[in-house]
Hints:
Layout: E1 9-13, E2 16-19, E3 26-31, E4 34-39, E5 48-52, E6 56-59, E7 71-72, E8 77-79, E9 83-85, E10 88-90, E11 93-96, H1 103-111, E12 124-125, E13 138-141, E14 152-153, H2 159-170, H3 175-180, H4 186-191, E15 213-219, E16 223-230, E17 233-237, E18 241-243, H5 252-259, H6 262-276, E19 284-291, E20 306-314, E21 319-320, H7 323-332, E22 336-337, E23 340-345, H8 346-354, H9 373-376, E24 397-402, E25 406-407, H10 411-414, E26 416-419, H11 421-426
Parallel strand pairs: 14-26, 20-22
Antiparallel strand pairs: 1-5, 2-3, 3-4, 5-11, 6-8, 6-12, 7-8, 9-10, 13-18, 15-23, 15-24, 16-17, 16-19, 19-20, 20-21, 21-25, 24-26
Amino acid sequence: MPNEQRALATIETILGVEPIPDADKIERARIRGWSVVTRKGEFKPGDLCVFFEIDSVLPEHERYAFLKDAWKDSLKGYRLRTKKMRGQISQGLAIPISKFEEEEVVNAALKDVGKDVTQALGVTLYVPPVAASMNAAQKGAFPHFIPKTDEERVQNVNTKHFLSVLKEAYDYDGAAYINQAKGVDMLDVLIDEGKDLVKGGPDSEDPMTPGAVYYVSEKLDGTSITLYVREGEWGFCSRNYELKYDEEATDVYNRVVRDKELATKLVETSRTIQNNAYPLPTNFAIQGEIVGLGVQGNPYKLEKLELFVFSIFDIDAQEYIAVDSMIQLSSLLSLLTCPFRSVTPTPFVTHSLYGDRDNFQHAFDNPLEEEGFLQKAALRSMSSHQSALNYSAIPEGEVYRPFWSIPRAFKELLSFKVINNRYLLKEK
């Protein structure tokens, strides 16, 4: 969902409570796919709470006074961030329902677990300050015929909905392996050449069965851009608005379009596809990440602006094209795609969504210091704890998407992002 509409505060159920080694006063609570540190004895499984996601800004109120170290005068509120306590990552905040008197919260707790109470509690989203280099003149609203660029966090993926849509989109039974995998050591199965992982059950053979594999790419720390060509007309957008093209403008969006000659290439490539009957869309939108000088402090130490494609949308078919087609079309435009990380069997994805979502964090293990769970299974390289753009940089995270084309209506249910906890802990 777009950031402005993010459900930052919701009514949730405590799924489990676990001790933290060598910690007498705190413990780990599981809420959806999130791990949250709470006071010992504050919750038990089945209890209701209001859960606030990271990046929430909570208004001044006595019930939040214990968060005094998170207060920001510039925000007039308490900003929630990822923290590490006694070796345990904590993401978000859980407060017992009994601490709330707001009518909407109390009523929701009685009958509507999962209800969004963000507005009722005056919670807002933390938005980093915008650098001058990011300011571009707006032309109008974001085009209705293209989805905005955003991915759901893995912690918020609803496994039931995920499996249902996987079946509807690809006729793929993502639950098959879950039903057979209770008590199975996932590492052992992965190392055994993934023989039972290809289609979700024993004796499966074809790895290119629709829905059978996920394509994983590096999530880059930059700013997103959308460029489109439709019936011979082109345009470009920031995350929320269509922008004006200006030959003299110095913002990063105009500079990338100008430096890479995309105004011309978009129209010419569309015409080439049509004239040669290539199996690619003629009306399409390129969505990618701008990184480099003037963007997010340039963590990759690049000497110029670069654009990396992470998806291409077929405007006529209203679907995201398959990964191989995305790479082909990007090549026609002389553009690179976001760095490849892995082709991962879908059963690993469903198994981890259903079970322990901390499995996804193993993608960033340093095998010289840690077990290297996914490196041992040959699902990540030995340098996956480093960014492909600069080995001295920590990768922001990964994006998971089905290898095959994705209908627009299913995108937010089938693809998701995993943010690297190390990156979050370093974030200012």
